[in-house]
Every structure is written in C-alpha cells, then in structure tokens.
Amino acid sequence: MRVLYFTESLYPHVDGVSRTLARLFAALPQRGVDFRVVSPFIPGSEVPWADRVVGVSWIAFPLYRDYRVSLPGGRRVRRLWDAFRPDLVHLVSPTPMAWWAKRRARRRGVPVVASFHTHFIAYLPYYRLRPLERLGWPVLRAFYRGCARVYAPSPSLVRELRAHGVERVGRWSRGIDAALFHPARRDPALRATLGVSDTQPLVLYVGRLVREKDIGDVVATARALRARGVAFRLAFVGEGPCRAELERALPDAIFAGYRHGEELARWFASADVFFFPSTTETFGNVVLEAMASGLPAVVSDRGGPADLVIDGRTGFVVPAHDVVGFGDRLAALLTDAGLRQRMGTAARQRAEGFEWGVVHDRLVASYRAVVRWAQRAPVPMRALAAWRA
Questions:
Q1: 118 with 19, same domain?
Q2: How many domains does the chain have?
C-alpha cells in the first residue's frame, strides 16, 4: 500500500503533530506501507525517512510565524504524485495545498482520509478573531466532505466534530514511550541545579508559550497560590512569543526553553505536579507524558486532556478558566506528598495502556479498509462520491 501525506507540521519544526507523524513514519515500513510526504519543512539527514519528503513553497502563518503554510500545487508535487501513484492520500491540515490535493485525488479516483490535529477555530478568540468562528465550521465541513475517514485523536474531539456535522469520524489515538517517560528518570542533580530542594514541590508546564494554551490561567493560578502562602516552584519547558511576558509576570519561575528526548523526560520525572489548563488541545501529548512520568496532572475539562485524566484518581479535571478551582486542586497536591504519590502511581498505570504499536496497527488497518472499499466500489459509485466531494 502506498500512502501520500500532505502536512504543514514536520521535523525540524517541533509540536505534537510533527512528533506524532515522526512516530507513525518510523512504524509504517514494518507494516508494509510505502509512503511519501509533501511538506514546507524538510527534516535533516539524521531522520531515517527524510529522503521520502518533498519540500514545497510556503508562506508564514500570520498568527504564529513559526508555522508554515504550503502553497498549492507545483511541478515537483505533480511529478511525485505521478511517479509514486498513491493508493491513498492523507491530509493532515485543511490548508490550500490540502484542498488542491483533495481535488487532484478526486479527479484520479484516489481515496482521501484526513485528520484533525489542531483546533484552529478554538484559537480565534485569542487573536481577537471571534467573528470568524461563524465561518470556521462551514469551511471545515466542506473540507472534510468526501473524505473516506476523518481521524480525531480523542473522544472529546470525535463528539465535537460529529456535533458540527462532520461525517465518517473515527479515532486515531496517541501512544507513549513508557520506557523513555518514566519515574525512574527523576534527577536530584537537576533539581539542585534549579535550586529546588527535595521537600519543595515543583509544578511543571510543558508546551508552547502562546495565548491559546491558556497561559494566562497559569499566571493567575500561580499568583493566587502565592497569595495563599502555598510553597512551590514553577517551571516552564517550551518556547513561544509570550515568554517575555511570562518572565515579567512570574519573575521567580524557571524557564527551560525547548527540551527533547531524554532531557525532556528528566524534566518531567523531576517535577512533582503537572499543570496544563489549555482548553484548545485535541489530545494532550504532554499530559500523557507527564502521567507516564508519574505526575498527577491538573487539567481543564475542555478538550483532549480531560479524556486522559481520571478526576480524583490520576489528577484533577477542573472547569475551564476556573482559577479558584485550579488553585484548590493544586494546593491539595502541593501540601500532601502522600496524595501526590498515590495519584502519580495511578497516572503511570493508566499511561502504560497507551501503546504506540496498537495505535499504528489500528490506523494502518483503517487505511487498508478504505483502500479495499475504493477498489471494490463500482465506477459509478466512485464518480458519485467524487461529485459529492
């Protein structure tokens, strides 16, 4: 089976989408899947599948300049398509290039699947673009119309997409490297370097430092805890345009920048509580990594993280933007080492059930089912499906 991917997120750009795709691309060959990737990002030669990527022209995404948006078409992409002759096209984001690829696949009778990774509609209010929300869902419905499958990463997103009229929605979950993210990686030397004693609880946030991650709730909650006299340190792992603002608002916080691989795993395991109030997550990879590292997590009840955390057992799920509620739950954890230990152990046990191998097997099985359906469908049926797309 040959699959052609169109994605705006790929190494060396690092986010949850690019990390998920890197895992998938490493696993596909052993499952009998040949693939090519069209992207504005080109991985370095150290990436085993880098020679399968074709770069395209792009422009910077206006709301976040680190993101690139592919320009549609192009001679290199058409040549790749004709030479590779894909059995299936997978669209990762609803970009101009993806719209072009969907039309080309329709004309050539190639089935298309798509995945929902980034909740751009939920981002709009953070950039004073709330009026555009009215247009967002009709555009997404039009984009996903005619796709044989639309993959969402969490039960919450499956329900939301269906509620907004998106059809044929299925689940493509995420996994965890439970050997990499492990409580045994706790590093007293790292804590000492940060000036954090063994008895001082360390609260950790991992993610981009951007408004749509609800970092304002992190600031407000930290200040409220300080006012209550709760002892703790706060660390941010990640970068973004709001870093300077955060440094001014929380001068005693620790800012570690980007961390990857074993170094990131050390930061997770060396903390005591994970705090992630974002309401725009489609899954919450960092929440699962924190849980695998043995941390209880305090998260919002809106979005993917609420599907991962079992309230009162592996952490706490708090109503969105409820700073008082966040503070109460964090205070309970920060002042009770026994509670942290019990919830952290339960979090680790839950995270161990998210196996990448199972995730990849299920996705490839879905791919094969779509291709078989397309091959069996009579020509008039395929023409009708294409017309409806």
A1: yes
A2: 2
Q: How does pLDDT run across 213-270, given as a tens digit for each residue?
A: 999 999 999 999 999 999 999 999 999 999 999 999 999 999 999 999 999 999 999 9
**pLDDT tens digits for range 326-351:** 999 999 999 999 999 999 999 999 99
Distances (CA, A) of 276 to 117, 196, 284, 334: 18, 21, 9, 15
Strands 68-70, 58-60: pairing kind: antiparallel
CATH code of residue 152: 3.40.50.2000
Tokens standing for residue 65: 């300049």
∠ Cα 68 299 14 (to 5°): 25
Q: Are 173 and 354 in contact (CB under 8 A)?
A: yes
161 within 8 A of 114, measured Cβ to Cβ: no
* Helix 96-108 with 133-144: angle, nearest 10 deg: 30
DSSP category for residue 155? H
Residues 360 and 346 in one domain: no
Determine the residue type at 65: R
Give dist(CA 349, CA 212) in Å, integer: 30
User: Helix, strand, coil proportions of the chain in percent (round to 5)?
Assistant: 50, 15, 35
Domain co-membership, 302 together with 373: no
Cα 239 versus chain centre, distance: 16
Question: β-pairing, 149-152 with 34-39?
Answer: unpaired
